[in-house]
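Worked example

This section walks through a single chain of length 526. The input is the sequence exactly as stored; nothing has been trimmed or padded.
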Amino acid sequence: MESSGPSTAAPEFDVYGAMDWKDGVGTLPGSELKFRVNEFGVLEVITDEMEEERGKKAHATTTWSVPTAQEALSKEPVSKEETSWAQRGLVCVRCNRKGSVVDFLSDGLHCSERCLQQKQQDELKREGSRANGEALRRKRSRMTERLAEDMDSSMEIAEEDDEDYEEKESRRPARGATRGRRKRRGDAALLRYTVPYGGKKKAWCWASYLEQERAIAAPSKLFKEYQSFPQCKSGFRVGTRLEGIDPEHPSMYCVLTIAEVLGHRIRLHFDKYSDCYDFWVNSSSPDIHPVGWCEKTGHKLHPPKGMKDEEFSWSSYIKLNKIQTAPKALFQNQNMTVTPSGFRVGMKLEAIDKKNPSFICVATITDMVDSRFLVHFDNWDESYDYWCDATSPYIHPVSWSQENGRTLTTPPGYPDVKNFSWEKYLAETSSLPAPARAFKVKPPHSFQLNMKLEVVDKRNPALIRVATVVDTDDHRLRIHFDGWTDEYDYWIDADSPDIHPAGWCAKTGHPLQPHFPRHFMENCSR
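Given that input, the structure is written out below as tokens.
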């Protein structure tokens, strides 16, 4: 199946897709040239001198975990530079001029373009090699252009009216919202990253906020891989098509269009339906698949509104509408390792109703994809279905309720509720129970009270806010949005894809909605 349809304009050449990538190094077929993406997201040629220099600086290449409060706000002299950045401002590495974050370039190292250029000229002189000098000059030119774009992008975000943005009736950002760009920063730098707010002279950053509140950031080791910092830039583009699960009807796969990209999050639109049904997912979500996945795996694909099942085919739909499809390589679930499971479609089990957690109900496994399976409550509407894996704390073997003194909710309409027994029900439905050995125990999370993190606002999923853990149980967190009343608090699973470590928005280029005490804003804007 073709991955893209015909277009009136020539398709944009994908230089990244034309290369063979391994360990962050790209090579062109038939050429000995090597390429890499530098810290500013610019593609550059790797020379022998640069390889040697890269080896010398390997220890300075940071991971993407954000330090905890003990690390970010340590009493020990971790670095005088860190203290000056977070409290007294920045120091230019070229002229030693001191200033605030709003006076410096976005790299946080230079006070002006002139200093940046002079610094690079000094580096060129030290290299002494004409060939390497040419490569560095190209790097300087590209870096300057990228920095200018990033500064323009930040100004556009800063000048938006934040209050109006949050109170739109559609509860989603405008289609033309500026997409954040990836910036390669270290652990401490992510916390020092300033978030523009309400004007060019106002800014907000995690490090200052943690110090001001005497708070701690949840350590990055507490987060799952899909919650933590991504290893590469998202390649999804607005307008491309894919297949995905309807979050309101988890058993249904639908034709979807990417309507918006913000960092590593994408807003998906059901083709031919109203925008009010749009929803957000992370780019690493297991709920999205490339075009043709349903046909390949035997799943039913629901066509766009107004089209019958027999009328729809991807090939004709692509050609007729002159659309493009999202490349298969962008979907992280395409090459994942599947863990063997004892669960099978049709098996029975007991499951907690997530919408009514006090109910434990008779349920059936109705679908399986990789290591996940779909739980359906017998004789209930499919809107109650949910996907989980063998470690989910919401599922149990048959007879678990009886053995643990809990009440089992039988299927609606079952004739003999008082005398319900699993042995009889399994015989009546010609079903098998999910074996007890298939259920795996998930260890409790290690989040603690008052830890800070970044959380998607479920009432307005376009927004990610600064939040605090105010209560916990073994597998859930009670989230409080800083600056809001506790009536907006709610419980969320500790493994939810909607929670992230402090600095995630800065790393991925996603806007963050922080809490802004007046005195704190004044300190940041000086």
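What to look for: The domain at 348-434 is CATH 2.30.30.140 (SH3 type barrels.).
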